[in-house]
Design a protein that fits this description.
Elements lengths: L3 E6 L6 H13 L8 E4 L2 H10 L4 H15 L9 H7 L5 H12 L11 E7 L4 E6 L8 H9 L8 E3 L2 E5 L1 H4 L3 H10 L8 E6 L3 E2 L18 H23 L5 E4 L2 E2 L11 H14 L1 H8 L3
Helix pairs in contact: 1-3, 1-10, 2-6, 5-6
Pfam family, one: Patatin
Keywords: Hydrolase, Lipid degradation, Lipid metabolism
GO molecular function: hydrolase activity
């Protein structure tokens, strides 16, 4: 059996531009292999869907640059911003929906011929829900993506086919294990034939320190900080498990590290994220080439 190549892309809001830029660099250097399965969570589902539809990565980067300020435009709120987070989501997912509909039109999941996997969270069932281009359910592609992007406190949940769905990043911000499980169970791929390119959206340190004296939800844990910490923790823990499941020559994880958190809605940081991608591509070029050349 030939090698089964998976592309896995983490969630992270505007930080998805990092993964999109990396794919652009790989495409320009003719290093992108043919993928057998593409998985993406939240913002990663946007990139994954574009890649599955053969949309050039440079166009994906431009999409983030052009649409960030539209998607993350604050709702009107008469009162303190601190109180706003207690009573409503910060952003109108109708804006995100409009952008996604413009990009993906009336395509349904089954219109995507390359196997595509999009994790979401079923709030009523209290479980994860996986959309895929090869499953029985067949919503509009933009609906599945919108559901996966509906991060708590940022966007309201999304209703798709009667299911109340939210961000897949609540349990699968790094979708690599779901992708491996699908490769094994659905496509019957032996472990030794699996190759994974896993793109992160930043690993940040310094979320908390021991100077905090009060650990309330507002003044200690801080709801947005906690949300980002848990997503980052899930991504890193999942990557560590994947490294134990796969050999070194089966997994290429590309991610950047920073002491300063870039929030998912900081659309003015796209240039900085592109720079992170450019720098990582240069410093990791030998490792990248060694992994991709045989593919």
């Amino acid at each position: 059996m030939q090698q089964f190549v998976i592309l896995s892309i983490d969630g992270g809001g505007i930080r998805g531009v990092f993964a999109a830029r990396l794919l652009e660099l790989l495409r320009s250097s003719s290093k992108l292999p043919a993928f057998n399965l593409i998985a993406g969570t939240s913002t990663g589902s946007i990139i994954a869907s574009c890649m599955a539809l053969k949309i050039d990565p440079s166009i994906i980067v431009s999409l983030y640059q052009a649409s960030g300020s539209i998607i993350f435009s604050k709702k009107f709120f008469f009162g303190p911003r601190l109180l706003e987070k207690a009573v409503q989501s910060s952003y109108d997912n109708g804006r995100l929906k409009a952008v996604l509909r413009q990009v993906f039109g009336k395509k349904r999941l089954h219109d995507v011929k390359l196997p595509l996997l999009i994790p979401t969270t079923d709030l009523k069932a209290g479980s994860g829900h996986l959309f895929s281009s090869f499953a029985n359910d067949n919503p509009y592609l933009y609906e599945a993506i919108l559901a996966s992007c509906s991060a708590p406190t940022y966007f309201d949940p999304t209703v798709v086919d009667g299911k109340l769905l939210a961000d897949g990043g609540m349990w699968g911000n790094n979708p690599i294990l779901s992708a491996i499980a699908i490769a094994r169970d659905h496509f019957k791929v032996p472990f030794d034939k699996i190759k994974v390119i896993s793109l992160g959206s930043g690993h940040f340190s310094g979320f908390y320190d021991d100077e905090n004296k009060r650990w309330g939800l507002i003044n200690g844990w801080k709801i947005r900080t906690l949300t980002e910490f848990l997503a980052s923790l899930q991504s890193e823990a999942t990557n560590q498990i994947a490294k134990k499941l796969l050999n070194q020559n089966q997994l290429l994880r590309l991610n950047f590290k920073s002491d300063n958190l870039i929030s998912p809605d900081e659309f003015d940081k796209t240039d900085e994220l592109i720079q992170f991608a450019d720098e990582l591509y240069i410093t990791e070029k030998i490792r990248i080439d060694n992994f991709l050349n045989p593919l």
